[in-house]
């Protein structure tokens, strides 16, 4: 029997999962790694550690199967993160990840000379320091010795391909789109942008449609990982469109709701969309991992990370109880939140904001505290605030003519019925739970299976992805009224001068 392996390289860890031809997951593995912050505003990963973790999870997942069983591999990768590589294939730097804001000045100044609207029309994206382009400009000015030694610039998808033995690695179009160096209409690296930024196009890997075969695992490496030298590697792409494919959210009106460190909505479009509303609200347009479709991304960089912050700062009791009872401390915390909506109002900018504001100077706020406020109310209000931010993004999309009627939830937050129901109530949209536990990995496996068996991606997705539960919104009248106050909070805080100018 043939099996298909999907890899999801995230910001805090990497996962591998193997599926059979029916979409049943037969094995999986996971490794964590630590985010490195040498200075305020900097966020990095040790590239070699990430690659080592990827090799370990591939071997662990594949080792439960007979040798030569894995027919294909597809890779889903965090966006924007890149590493400078020397002529021998070694990392010259740590990987600069999305939440790194060191290139803030470049994201503000460089588009003014190039033309911000021209940049949008080519790349489908509006400027933000998360994007590869601006961090490369920062590197050229601040790490000139490293830049001179740079032979290649690799994102994690194509770097893993290279480390697996692919001589000419290529990232999927959805990941190329997140570099802000890619022409999303003509599907090539933009010579206009590269010339203006003085970046040699030879530094960049190839870029191919998701599901394209790039080669086979090297024979010696394959033997170490319980793979075959006939194991095909195909392009995947950026994790958000990949997750949408893995959740079967590949039809208009449907979006994946990724609930991890970052909260993200990814709807599908039949064709690329460039409008003034999307442009002014920083909604991108780029390739979907389902070939032939396009996607946008609405996201809050504060998501599950704010629950981790709450757990670490205020959940010592639950952390201890979880150790004694072999339970998840998040479940213990969520069991204690009050059933009724809170009177608190949270602006959930504990990180730089995502869409629509792209504000790197924001700070979070909890409004309405008094001496009677309980810890559990604050926790629920934090969740409400993140959900309101998603509701704001959906409102903007709907006003631009792109309604989302179903949210297919995935990620760590999808495991909690309490979270799913609360978010459905706040957002006032049905939230659908799937049989999918690792959507990014499933997308990689779907793309690999389609390539190996010469079948359609949409057909395999339809057969593999199943709905198991739907959470219908309740209490939306209260939350709809509260949302009107939420809409006023950020402008007022900015007017008061909390975030600078």
Low-confidence stretches: none
In the CATH scheme, the class of the largest domain would be Alpha Beta
CATH architecture label name of the largest domain = 2-Layer Sandwich
CATH superfamily of the largest domain: ATPase, nucleotide binding domain
SS element count, helices: 19
Number of strands: 24
Alpha-carbon distance between the two ends: 60 Å
Largest sheet: 8 strands, mixed
Helix-strand makeup class = alpha+beta
Share in β-strands: 15-25%
Radius of gyration from CA coordinates:
22 Å
Shape: globular
Helix content: 25-40%
Average pLDDT metric: 94
- Fill in the CATH topology of the largest domain: Nucleotidyltransferase, domain 5
Number of separate domains: 2
Textual characterization of the structure:
With 501 residues, the chain is α+β, with helices and mostly antiparallel strands. The chain contains 19 helices and 24 strands. The strands form seven sheets. Strands 15, 16, 17, 18, 19, 22, 23 and 24 form an eight-stranded mixed sheet that branches. Helix 16 (417-427) links the parallel strand 22 (406-410) and strand 23 (431-434). The N and C termini lie far apart (60 Å). The mean pLDDT is 94.
């Amino acid at each position: 029997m043939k099996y298909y392996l999907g890899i999801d390289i995230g910001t805090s860890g990497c996962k591998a999962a193997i599926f059979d031809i029916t979409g049943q997951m037969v094995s999986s593995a996971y490794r964590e790694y630590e985010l490195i912050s040498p200075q305020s505003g900097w966020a990095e990963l040790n590239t070699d550690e990430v690659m080592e973790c990827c090799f370990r999870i591939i071997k662990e997942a594949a080792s439960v199967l007979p040798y030569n069983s894995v027919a294909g591999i597809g890779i889903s990768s965090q966006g924007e993160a890149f590493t400078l590589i020397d002529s021998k294939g070694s990392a010259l730097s740590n990987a600069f990840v999305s939440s790194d804001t060191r290139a803030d000045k470049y994201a503000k100044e460089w588009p003014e000379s190039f033309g911000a609207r021209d940049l949008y029309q080519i790349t489908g994206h509006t400027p933000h320091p998360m994007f590869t382009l601006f961090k490369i400009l920062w590197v050229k000015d601040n790490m000139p010795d490293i830049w001179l030694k740079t032979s290649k610039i690799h994102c994690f998808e194509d770097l893993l391909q290279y480390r697996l033995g692919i001589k000419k690695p290529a990232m999927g179009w959805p990941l190329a789109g997140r570099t802000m160096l890619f022409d999303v209409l003509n599907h090539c690296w933009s010579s206009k942008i590269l010339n203006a930024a003085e970046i040699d196009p030879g530094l960049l890997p190839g870029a191919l449609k998701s599901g394209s075969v790039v080669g086979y695992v090297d024979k010696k490496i394959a033997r170490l990982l319980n793979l075959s030298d006939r194991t095909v590697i195909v392009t995947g792409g950026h994790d958000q469109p990949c997750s949408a494919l893995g959740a079967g959210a590949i039809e208009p009106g449907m979006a994946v709701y990724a609930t991890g460190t970052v909260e993200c909505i990814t709807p599908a479009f039949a064709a690329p969309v460039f409008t003034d509303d999307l442009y002014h609200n920083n909604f991108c347009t780029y390739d979907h991992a389902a070939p032939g479709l396009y996607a946008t991304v609405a996201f809050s960089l504060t998501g599950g990370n704010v629950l981790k912050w709450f757990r670490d700062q205020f959940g010592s009791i639950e952390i201890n109880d979880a150790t004694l009872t072999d339970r998840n401390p998040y479940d213990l915390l969520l069991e204690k939140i009050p059933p009724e909506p809170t009177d608190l109002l949270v602006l959930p900018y504990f990180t730089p904001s995502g869409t629509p504001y792209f504000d790197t100077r924001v700070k979070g706020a909890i409004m309405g505290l008094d001496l009677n406020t309980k810890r559990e109310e604050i926790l629920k209000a934090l969740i409400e605030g993140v959900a309101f931010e998603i509701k704001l993004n959906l409102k903007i999309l709907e006003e631009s003519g792109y309604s989302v009627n179903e949210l297919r939830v995935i990620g760590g937050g999808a495991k909690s019925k309490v979270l799913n129901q609360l978010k459905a109530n706040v957002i006032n949209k049905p939230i659908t739970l799937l049989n999918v536990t690792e959507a990014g990995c499933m997308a990689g496996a779907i793309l690999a299976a389609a390539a190996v068996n010469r079948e359609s991606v949409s057909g395999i997705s339809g057969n593999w992805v199943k709905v198991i539960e739907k959470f219908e919104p309740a209490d939306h009248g209260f939350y709809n009224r509260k949302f009107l106050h939420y809409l006023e909070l950020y402008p007022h805080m900015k007017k008061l001068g909390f975030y600078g100018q």
